[in-house]
Amino acid sequence: MATGGGWAPARSVERHGAPPPRGGGGGGTRSKSVAPGPRRPSPSPARSRPAPDNGGSSDSCRVRVSVRLRPKNSEDLAHGSDFDSCVELQPESKRLKLKKNNWSCESYKFDEVFSENASQKRVYEVVAKPVVESVLEGYNGTVMAYGQTGTGKTYTVGQLGKDDPSERGIMVRALEHILSSMSFETDRVAISYLQLYLESVQDLLAPEKTNIPIVEDAKTGDVSLPGAAVVEIKDLEHVFHLLQIGEANRHAANTKMNTESSRSHAILIIHLQRSSRIKEENSSLSNDTHNIFPDDLPLVLKSKLLIVDLAGSERIDKSGSEGHMIEEAKFINLSLTSLGKCINALAENSPHIPTRDSKLTRILRDSFGGTARTSLVVTIGPSSRHYSETSSTIMFGQRAMKVVNTIKLKEEADYEILYKKMEREVDQLTSEMERQQKLIKSEKMQLDKKFKESERSFHDLRMTSNMRIENLEKEKCQLESTVKTLMRDLEEEKGQKNLLSEQIAELEKLLNKNKQQQLENLSRTKILTDTTKEHEKEMEELLRQLQEERHCSSSLKDRMSVLQQELCDAQSSAQESMARELEKKLTKVTEELTSQVQSLKEKISELISEKEVIYEELKSTQEKVQQEMWQRQGLEDQILRLERSTSDNYAEESKTSYGMVRSGSGLGNAAFVSKSGKIREALSGQRGTISKIFEEVGLPNVLALLKSEDLDVQIHAVKVVANLAAEDINQERIVEEGGLDALLSVLETSENTTIHRVTAGAVANLAMNGSNQGVIMNKGGARLLANVSSKTEDPQTLRMVAGAIANLCGNEKLHLMLKQDGGIKALLGMVRSGHADVIAQIARGIANFAKCESRVISQGHRKGRSLLIEDGVLTWMVANSTRFSASTRRHIELAFCHLAQNEDNTCDIIASGGIKELLRISRESPRDDTRNLAKKALDSNPAFLREIQ
Ligand code: ADP
Ligand code: MG
After folding, report:
1. Are 129 and 177 in contact (CB under 8 A)?
2. Which spans does this entry mark as compositional bias, Low complexity (predicted)?
3. Would you say 378 and 67 are in contact if contact means Cβ atoms under 8 Å apart?
């Protein structure tokens, strides 16, 4: 039953609103028929469990009825023997005998009979305790007192016994029992205290609340008084306090309404709520519920205990309230009458139970024929004066004993906890949802931002890509034009290369022709040699014949002298005629012989002259062969350079050209050393041998041999030194150990051409070293070399001398001394040789000189016109620049261009006709740097420019 005041928001949705259907008629008494009819299925999460029954079936429970006999009071005693006691109790058999008179007596059986001596405690334990225990287990319960006014209903039910605990009635004891049995942590107990009078419900705890409506749940049939106060209690003191308030309010109300408390019903409703968790296996919740609630569903047992102190059951005319109108009196008794009717109907298993006829029966709907465990105590007095009332009370009790209830466990989901839990979950879900929404929002914003950024970057990218494409297209166009230009250049170069290849081919052809000629010449020489040999043989034969003839002639002379002697003898013997004949013969023979000798002599002289002619021819042929060999070497040199220039694409050649005459000034053929592997091998073999000799003998000993008296030894010693001097590491050491002095002395004193050639080569090698160059000059080396050059026509010697001077030309510090010592003049003088190798060295020397001089002048270390001009070098260069091999020409051109850089040479260059040459070089020179030098000279010199115009 529920409530108004603020407790228990959870409402039971289960209700056995209607009493179980009764078996239709039939003989069996109600009290025996405990089997309930089919129950309605539970429409809610609430569940029912079979309840322990004190004596019935597991879930059906008959209303328990006890009788309590009040002790005789003063009134009873006052009437004394007039009215003896009409009641006799037989507690052993729980029976009561009611004596109508001395001869009429009836016996009634009850569940318990309490004598006048029965204690409050026992009455509680028998009447109320089982119900309270049942309520504590979750079932509804009702304890009710019924009886005539003054029989002890209020004493039994509502006695407070605040000071005397033994006096305490059922209300106090029940609450005491409940408070001691429940847990304050999980359980709650609250009370409502009401009074029903004239069909009006009043609140005894809140007296201002009157006429409180009774509400029935249409669905569950559950009855509640939502307007009544529900006060939660914590301890017994509170119970006393509330019950006292209730009592006081009941008294005040009755005074106000001019009524007696015996005419009103007092109803104490104890609301009990206990939590319990029942696991799945025990649960009988519907499937729907399982879907809604978790496995360990928080369940709550909600039960109510109604303790009712009914109004006096006596008839109204006897109640002493005569002030009331008869209708009003009926109204006063309506509830009690209705209760009696309902119990009768229930006891008689009537199809209609008039529950709705009064408020009391509506409130007690669950107590009789409902789901509550109900215990009724009927109170009676002992006096026979009230026989009729006592009898009707007993009959009421007897009928009530036939009423069977079907008790049901009121268990339902703890919606409060569930609600809170759900609320928490909803709150969590809401906050989670909000968080997710925020997250989504921020993600969306970020995505938007990213999208915009992407769009921007895409746009930028497109712009840059377009720009790049444009640039690339431009570059492509440029590259295409460059490629075209390059192709053109390539074509030109190809043409040049073809030209060069043609030139090479021509030169090779020429070379082959020369080779052929040489071979021819060689064969001719061989023929000549053979012829000469034959002639010599012939001459020998002739000489031998001559000798023989001479011998013959002498023998003939001898014979003649013998004959003359014989003649004399004959003359003397007078055979003069015979003598004359003989003399004639002799003269003839003599003449013959003389002519023979003469002819032989002529023949010999002829042969001798022929021999001389042949020798002449042989010599000229040899010279021719030599000349051709030189030419061939020149050509080979030219081919080599052309090949190199072709392959290196005109690579830098000045280093080798202007460098020291390393191989060229050493022993052997310069051109061949760089070209012929065989000769190089031979030369390195030779050098190896010389190094061995040098190691064995030691430099001082080798140098000592330079002064040897033996020419061969001296020549070989010079050769060894020259070879050693070809190696960089030896050059300074040879000079330091006096090798240079020895070589210069040999050069000065010797008249031998080989010595000259080899020594000049050795000096040339030593002159490759920069520090040696000054020593050579200081020791008069240049003068000696000039002297040698003037005395010899041997091209190899001249080549060595020219190489040595060319090396010295590469040292600008020595230029003046070189000129003064006649080095320049001597260098130019060797041009007379006409030999290509000699001229190549001369050109190299001049280029070295001009280049170094130009550098010194450009750096401002010297001024004035070139030292080369005075000795006629400029004139020679202008006149001969185009005559020689390509490399020689390049040297000459380069030297000329360097001279043209010096303004002090301007007049001489113009005077020598060099402008034309300069112009030619600026256009035709195969070397870029030379062409540029020529152009630079022409452009930077106003005099030249004027001259050109
Ligand atoms: P009722 O409520 O039925 O009108 P009460 O409880 O007021 O009757 O009892 C009337 C009087 O009888 C009271 O004074 C009460 O103390 C007394 N009384 C009733 N029953 C007993 C009892 N069993 N033992 C002692 N006194 C009793
Ligand atoms: Mg009373």
Report:
1. yes
2. 45-63
3. yes
Residue 149, ligand 1, Cβ within 6 A: yes
User: Residue with the nearest Cα to atom 17 of ligand 1?
Assistant: 152
Query: What per-residue confidence (pLDDT) applies to 817?
Result: 92
Q: 920-926: long-range contacts (C-beta < 8 A, 24 or more apart)?
A: 921/881, 921/893, 921/896, 921/897, 925/890, 925/893, 926/645, 926/650, 926/886, 926/890
User: Which atom of ligand 1 is nearest to 147's Cα?
Assistant: 3
Ligand of minimum distance to the alpha carbon of 314: 1
- Do the beta carbons of residue 134 and residue 427 sit within 8 Å? no
Residue type, 159: Q
Question: In the structure encoding, which two tokens stand for residue 905, read together?
Answer: 């040479």
Mean pLDDT of 29-53: 35
Virtual torsion, Cα 118, 120, 122, 126, nearest 10 deg: 110
Distance 112 CA to ligand 2 centre (A): 21
**Domain 59-277+296-317+337-413 part of CATH 2.60.120.260:** no
Strand partners, 196: 201, 265
Mean pLDDT score across all residues of the chain = 81
159 CB near ligand 1 (under 6 Å): no
Note residues around ion ligand 2 (Cβ under 5 angstroms): 153-154
Q: How far is C-alpha 69 from the geometric centre of its chain's CA atoms?
A: 101
- Tell me the Ramachandran region of residue 567: left when phi exceeds 0, alpha when psi lies from -120 to 50, beta otherwise: alpha
Residues paired with 306 in a beta bridge: 142, 269
Best residue among 73, 155, 313 to mutate for probing ligand 1's pocket (most ligand atoms within 8 Å of CB) is 155
3-state secondary structure 533-574: HHHHHHHHHHHHHHHHHHHHHHHHHHHHHHHHHHHHHHHHCC
Length of the chain: 949
In terms of C-beta density within 10 A (0-12 exposed, 13-18 middle, 19 or more buried), how is residue 611 classed?
Answer: middle
Report d(CA 357, CA 336) in Å as an integer. 11
Residue 383 DSSP label: B
Phi, psi (5° rounding) for residue 200?
-125, 130
pLDDT of residue 331: 75
pLDDT band at 526 (very low <50, low <70, confident <90, very high): confident
pLDDT at position 153: 95
Q: How far is the CA of 479 from the centre of ligand 1 (A)?
A: 132
Q: CA-CA distances (angstroms) from residue 701 to 154, 383, 679, 708, 738?
A: 164, 181, 28, 11, 12
Does ligand 1 have an atom closer than 6 angstroms to the CB of 158?
A: no
Mean pLDDT over 759-784 rounds to: 92
Residues 345-400 have pLDDT tens digits of 999 999 999 999 999 999 999 999 999 999 999 999 998 888 999 999 999 999 99
Cβ–ligand 1 contact at 152 (below 6 Å): yes
Alpha helix ranges (H) inside 793-835: 795-809, 815-820, 823-829
Ligand 1 atom closest to Cα of residue 73: 12
CA-based torsion, 816, 819, 820, 823: positive or negative: positive
Which pTM value belongs to this model? 0.46
Ligand 1: residue of 70, 171, 262 to mutate (most ligand atoms within 8 A of CB) is: 70
